[in-house]
Amino acid sequence: MLYKQIAFAVVIVAVVLAAAGIGAQAPAAYDLLIRDVRILDGTGAPWFRGDLAVRGDTIAAVGFVPRAEAGVVIEGKGQVLAPGFIDIHTHARRGILVVPTADNYTRQGVTTLIEGPDGSSPVPIAPFLARVAAVRTSANFGMFIGQGSVRDAVMGNMDRKATPAEIERMIQLVRDGMRDGAFGLSTGLFYTPGSYTPTEEVITLARAAGALGGRHVSHMRDEAAHVIDSVRETIRIGEEGSLPTQITHHKIIGTANWGKSVETLRLVEEARARGVDVTVDQYPYTASSTSIAAALLPKWALEGSQQDVVKRLSDPEQRRRIKQAAVNALKNERGGGDPTRVVISSCRWDPSLAGKNLAEITRGLGMEPTLENAAEAAMHIVERGGAQGIFHAVGEEDLQRILRFPLTMIASDGEVTVFGKDAPHPRSYGTFVRVLGVYVRDKQVLRLEEAVRRMTSLPAMRLGLAGRGIIRPGMKADLVLFDPQRVRDMATFENPHQYAEGIAWVVVNGQIIFDGKAMTAARPGRVLYGPAHDSSR
Ligand SMILES: [Zn+2]
């Protein structure tokens, strides 16, 4: 009897509330609800079917979210929902202030861009991070402090040992970088002035970064004939510097060196077995991209300023030696043995060179495109101010071996592009979706769960980003929804300005930044700071 009365009262209350429209006026339980998706949590675990709800900037519920109300509801229709991709190696600072939406990255599912690689960063980094915050980006943005830039700031682009006082100043700049929010120290020992830096000096700076929780990421001294020595050096920097260390954009350059990834990965495993925290990242292309000068001219010729370089090139004896080295680089290293394998991606003093290969440029200068003459053409380009190039000299077998290695994360090494401008490496548009389309779906080199792990939780762990990279309640809502059957890269070397396909929605900090067709007006990206960040600075 009592039970019936209570039940009756409940019905009455419900009817009254409904009549007053109270239910309709109550705030939505969630801000965003993504329904009926295959949830791939980023840990490598198998996907599971369910829903995901977001409140504010945070994932509020995952799995079965019954009859939830939400401000925005997305019907997932069984597509894959993954954590947003974290790109641990970008050159985004070239373009992020011009294109703060970073469309080429967003449209392949990237929600966090990490800058300052290859030993190159602003010094100090704080003013640049403030500008990034002010411009309001779509994606999150973080930085490393660059060893080469630090050395350049203290002693210039000089091929000599540092004095104890100079080393003290460099240590101070690295510490300042960490307190400004860097995630660690990057090196580019392939580039000047990194190439002039003894390993011991790098280790000293690595210790300073490591003592503040930083990591080391290296574009190694040599990715061609001496790649094995360079891997040893990268491991040594981690081991003696007492910090995690990473081989960035790991690849094997030059046909004569192909196959050496068997040995490089063995060295990484050995180091880990004795407790050195070594990891790897990679982009899925058989061509690299960097400046013509860095790729083809010897380091000694690049010391000092552009005028110094031009002076050396106008001295007959030095020019002869530079040419000899350039011929060797064209034959055995980034040239891939054929000047058609070197293609200009951008050139400030003659933008029309973008897209032309070195054989065409050599012919344009009235010479047969032999290796010797192509070396002349390369020197001609450097004399006039240089250019960025693309170098088709990376082995596919090594690429796949490195990709299968469980400690390899995916990173683009790309830049924020201005759509249609220059002829950039397609990695800027396609890195992440190329792995999902070509290497997961078509070639089946990796399982989907495993590929996504290398784009999400693995780089998040590397950076110490505890709140991102995994789908779980309480984590920040950086998300990408995609169709695993349709996802693919469209950008090619011939026609790089093509956005990825198959990405349906991209969410950063709970807000939709891409709806499958266009960028939205939302710019929810945040500056992310490393472990020693001191906000009072
Ligand atoms: Zn690099």
| Main pleated-sheet profile | 8 strands, mixed
- How many helical stretches? 18
What is the share of helical residues? 25-40%
Whole-Å distance between the termini? 70 Å
Counting helices, strands and paired strands, the structural category is alpha/beta
Strand elements, count = 20
Small molecules (ligands, ions, cofactors) in the structure: zinc ion
- The global form is globular
What does this structure look like?
With 537 residues, the protein is an alpha/beta fold. Helices cover 36% and strands 18% of the residues. Strands 1, 2, 3, 4, 5, 18, 19 and 20 form an eight-stranded mixed beta sheet that branches. The protein has a six-stranded parallel beta sheet with strand order 9-10-11-12-13-17, with helices on both faces. Strands 6-7-8 form a three-stranded parallel beta sheet, covered by helices on one side. A hairpin with a 2-residue loop joins strand 19 (503-508) and strand 20. Helix 5 crosses helix 6 and helix 13 (358-364) crosses helix 14. The radius of gyration is 25 Å and the shape is globular. The termini are far apart. Residues 13-25 have low confidence and may be disordered. Bound molecules: zinc ion. Residues 117-118, 219, 249, 413 line the site of zinc ion (ZN).
